[in-house]
Design brief:
- 43% of the residues lie in helices and 25% in strands.
- The protein folds into 5 domains: 157 residues, Beta-Lactamase; 107 residues, Beta-Lactamase (2-Layer Sandwich), CATH 3.30.450.20; 168 residues, GAF domain (Beta-Lactamase, 2-Layer Sandwich), CATH 3.30.450.40; 149 residues, 2-Layer Sandwich (Alpha-Beta Plaits), CATH 3.30.70.270; 253 residues, TIM Barrel (Alpha-Beta Barrel), CATH 3.20.20.450.
- The chain has an 8-stranded mixed beta barrel, surrounded by 6 helices.
- The chain is α+β, with helices and mostly antiparallel strands and 903 residues long.
- Helix 1 runs parallel beside helix 6 and helix 2 runs antiparallel to helix 6.
- The structure holds ligand C2E and calcium ion (2 copies).
């Protein structure tokens, strides 16, 4: 065994190695010296790559440097060291790591390894010593090892830094080389201009002549021709502004413009460049590169214009869509006016879908001088767009002046596109007009061609909608008006009756035992029978009367101006008409009918009640086999109480005898107050508290809901303002219930704004039940957007009980869904209800809406809902609806915390 080295000799050797730091000799010297100093057989320094491989940088073995090698760390003692701690396996290292073949090849018996780290502590590699005999290290030897490891780590780090620098220098050189090649081969011209008033050119590269048709000499110093003057006139100013802006931002600029070349051609140019600045930050000159992009450009410019218009349009439906489309198109195509018009269609052709040559057009949007103009109708054949009756496109570059109704001035050029439905019929036209003659119409027509499909689709969708409504009003079997149409007629005629102070009769007629005939002879014959009955009834009706088939075998007739005798006559005629035997094929049928009738105003005042009265009478007629049965007061006792209630309610509203209660809404995660719902309460002197479940529907039926709703809004506003004065602010918003009739008001947003005067819109949320949204979803989309724009949020109440289509939900500008109490009630016990709730929450999340659970009565329900991801809750568990004072007593702390700091 060799004598161990003295400490002094060892450090001398180390210092000798260190002097080579930063050279390729450093690591080989280090491993050699370590082998000597520590008297081991093998020493290696390795870098760890990809976390799993060791790549040696220097290997000393059996008295000589060895070639470098790369090995997998798995199953080696090095694996236990790399990135971790120093490890010593003093003996039998081969038995411990049987998979490590290198240990066997070297004949190693012991192993000492140290991890190597960079200055920032990142693991870099390892230093390993192996000895073909057991190993033991003294304190001094360990010290030496640590110093050596620190040096080796620093050396690896240095070499890594060097490598990456070399790589980045190489790539910089490469990209410079590529740029050079590119500039040399690009067709175009590089330039440098002086920052004088003319931007006089100092240098112009070779491509100038090809690009402009002028020699570089002609362009430099603007001797013969100023480059700026080549730029097609209308582009010049906006271009200069754009460049100036970029220069001010110290940014590069990229502009596209048209240039008139020496031979008078208009070409498209792309100019990219930047300014150079002196030490004071002043612009000394501009330099850049100009290339001719006429070829690619036309297609690209069309795409860009289309994309710009399309992305500027924020709605895809309704009038706003047309306004936005025309507005943006006019702007981008630099037109002076733009129009979208639809072909007028007779209602009959909507139903019959018959083809007729288009004659009149009515504008749906007119834009001129950046503003919207009134709509008007015009005769297509006398207009400049007459060609569109037979051809898809019209382009007029320079014509005798024409004018448009409602738009001042005259036009001398226009482009237009016919809008067609999917069957190819003309449904409208899209037109752009110019005051000055124009030359660049190919571009405009391309853009129009693409964007006109959207406009055509929207017009078609509207017409389909109308056509569907028409179809929806008629019963297919009999051709009579259906129930929907009848209900509308009933409302209209009742209003007319009220206006003219004339009575209105309602006759309901039911075929007796029709079901038996139907079952016995089949539906087909049943339908024939119904059609015959309908035909006969039709023959009996007088002027202004309205006949409808309500359902299966039930018909209704509305008789305006009907005195008792007139109604009786009608009834007799109907009875006789149906009483005559009906021959169908070889069979003969004798039908009997039951008839119930009621009259406005004698029996009932509202359409609903009139219908109810007639239904009650019909019910009696069927029961008692009487044939004809007029409504009598005794049948209407129930109606009586409702009548009384509606009178008292009307009075209560007028006298402001209603009150509001407030129910807290809380955050399900932490129970914090997030808002409240205002709920209306009515106490009648005789009847006590009347449930809103009873008086709200009544108010809706009796036309009292608007005054009631107005009062609620006013009262809520008063309360919130009082609280604010007292230094109390409700966190979040106060939710207010809105009924369908209020919602149908096209000026709802304005109205609410007026009633809540003094409050910011952000204090109010509106709740509307799901089924009310879905009554007329298109209208609802519009209304919700207006409300939203005005700053109110919307919640869809009683969600889960209606039939919302996902497509609509996405389009309503509602921000939360209130999960109906009926699902919350059994959410713990019913798997079914729990699934529904989870689905609603997932859906709301997908649509970016909040969820509020209603009717939460227990802590368990709250916990379950929170776990499902429901955001907020309302219910007895968190607090019942309370009068204002009681609400404050309970929630004052939350409302003070929330106070905005006084200004
Ligand atoms: P809504 O909008 O669904 O209101 C929630 C109803 O659930 C309230 O009934 C409330 O008292 C009740 N509720 C809240 N938490 C719980 C609970 O934990 N358990 C149970 N069982 N019920 C709970 P309320 O006050 O009787 O009102 C009934 C409906 O009347 C309201 O249903 C709303 O549709 C209508 N309504 C109330 N006030 C107004 C109003 O000012 N305007 C309009 N248009 N409708 C109103
Ligand atoms: Ca509600
Ligand atoms: Ca509700």
């Amino acid at each position: 065994m060799k004598a161990r080295m003295t400490a002094e000799a060892a450090f001398r050797l180390l210092a000798d190695g260190m002097s080579r730091a930063g050279t390729d000799a450093f690591l080989p010297t280090l491993v050699e010296h370590l082998a000597t100093i520590l008297d081991v057989d093998h020493v290696l320094v390795a870098q760890v790559e990809e976390g799993h491989y060791a790549q040696t940088l220097a290997v000393w073995s059996q008295g000589a440097l060895q070639p470098n090698l790369r090995y997998h760390l798995a199953g080696t003692p090095c694996e236990t060291v790399s990135g971790r701690q120093p490890c010593l396996y003093a003996c039998e290292v081969q038995q411990r790591f049987p998979e490590d073949e290198l240990l066997g090849e070297l004949g190693a018996e012991s192993y000492m390894g140290l991890p190597l780290f960079g200055l920032d502590g990142a693991p870099l590699g390892l230093l390993a010593l192996l000895k073909n005999a057991p190993m033991s290290l003294t304190g001094l030897e360990k010290e030496i090892l640590h110093i050596a490891a620190a040096q080796a780590g620093a050396e690896i780090e240095r070499s890594l830094a060097r490598q990456s620098l070399q790589r980045s220098e190489a790539s910089a050189r490469e990209s410079e080389r590529r740029l050079d090649t590119l500039l040399n081969h690009l067709p175009g011209m590089a330039y440098r201009c002086l920052n004088d008033s003319e931007w006089t050119m100092l240098v112009v590269s070779q491509g100038a002549e090809v690009l402009t048709g002028y020699s570089p000499a002609a362009l430099i110093h603007n001797r013969e021709v100023s480059y700026a003057s080549l730029i097609h006139a209308p582009d010049r100013q906006p271009l200069a502004d754009k460049v100036a802006e970029a220069v001010a931002r110290r940014d590069t600029f990229r502009v596209i413009y048209r240039l008139r070349t020496a031979c008078g051609q208009l070409r498209w140019m792309l100019e990219q460049g930047q300014a150079l600045y002196d030490e004071d930050g002043e612009v000394t000159c501009l330099e850049g590169f100009i290339s001719d992009i006429s070829e690619q450009h036309e297609a690209q410019r069309v795409q860009e214009a289309v994309a710009r218009v399309a992305s500027a349009i924020t709605t895809r439906m309704g009038d706003d869509y047309f306004h936005q489309l025309v507005g943006h198109l006019t702007e981008i195509l630099e037109a002076d006016a733009g129009i979208i018009a639809t072909v007028d269609m007779a209602p009959a052709s909507l139903v019959a879908a018959g083809r007729q040559p288009p004659r009149r057009l009515t504008t749906v949007s007119v834009s001129a001088a950046g503003g919207r103009r009134d709509n008007h109708s015009f005769d297509l054949r006398d207009s400049p767009f007459a060609e569109l009756a037979d051809s898809r496109e019209v382009i007029v570059r320079n014509a005798a002046a024409v004018w448009l109704p409602g738009v001042e001035g005259v036009f001398t050029a226009w482009v237009g596109r016919r809008l067609e439905n999917t069957r190819g019929d003309m449904v409208g036209a899209l037109l752009l007009l110019y005051r000055e003659p124009t030359d660049a119409n190919a571009f405009a027509t391309s853009v129009l061609r693409i964007l006109s499909t959207g406009a055509a689709a929207e017009i078609e969708r509207r017409q389909d909608h109308r056509r569907m409504r028409q179809l929806a009003y008629f019963d297919g079997t009999t051709g009579l008006a259906n129930r929907v149409r009848f209900m509308e007629d009933l409302h209209q005629m009742r209003l007319a009756a009220e206006r003219t102070q004339a009575p209105l009769g309602l006759i309901l007629l039911d075929l007796r035992r029709f079901k038996e005939i139907n079952d016995l002879h089949g539906h087909q014959l049943g339908d024939q029978l119904l059609a015959t009955v309908a035909g006969r009834l039709q023959g009996t009706i007088g002027k202004g009367e309205s006949l409808a088939r309500l359902s299966g075998d039930e018909f209704a007739l509305l008789v305006p101006g009907a005195s008792a005798e007139v109604v009786e006559e009608s009834v007799t005629r109907m009875g006789e008409a149906i009483g005559r035997p009906i021959q169908l094929g070889r069979r003969t049928f004798s039908l009997k009918v039951s008839i119930g009738l009621a009259r406005y105003p004698q029996d009932a005042l509202t359409p609903g009640e009139l219908f109810k009265a007639a239904s009650i009478a019909l019910y009696h007629a069927k029961q008692e086999d009487e044939g004809v049965c007029p409504f009598t007061a005794s049948m209407g006792q129930a109606l009586e109480r409702r009548q009384q209630m509606s009178e008292r309610l009307e009075r209560a509203i007028a006298q402001e005898a209603l009150t509001l209660h407030f129910q807290p809404q809380v955050d399900l995660r932490d129970g914090r107050l997030t808002g409240a719902e205002a709920l209306c309460r009515w106490h009648d002197d005789e009847w006590g508290w009347v449930s809103p479940g009873e008086f709200i529907p009544l108010a809706e039926e009796r036309g009292l809901i608007r005054p009631l709703g107005d009062w609620v809004l006013r009262c809520a506003t008063r309360q919130l303002l009082l609280w604010r004065e007292a230094g109390l602010a409700l966190p979040g918003r106060l939710s207010i219930n809105i009924s369908a009739q209020q919602f149908a008001d096209p000026r709802l947003a304005e109205r609410i704004g007026m009633l809540t005067d003094g409050l910011p819109a952000s204090a109010i949320a509106l709740e509307l039940t799901e089924s009310d949204f879905m009554r007329d979803p298109e209208q609802a989309v519009e209304t919700t957007r207006t409300l939203n724009r005005a700053g109110f949020t919307l919640a869809i109440d009683d969600f889960g009980t209606g039939y919302s289509s996902l497509a609509y939900l996405r389009r309503f500008a509602a921000d939360s869904l209130k999960i109906d109490i009926s699902f919350v009630r059994h959410v713990l016990e019913s798997q079914h209800d729990s699934t529904i709730v989870q689905t609603i929450i997932a859906m709301a999340q997908a649509l970016g809406m909040k969820t509020v659970a209603e009717g939460v009565e227990t802590a368990e329900q709250a916990a379950a809902l929170a776990a499902m991801g429901c955001d907020q809750a309302q219910g007895f568990h968190f607090g019942r609806p309370l009068p204002a004072e009681a609400f404050i007593a309970r929630w004052e702390a939350s409302m003070r915390e929330n106070q905005e700091p006084a200004s």
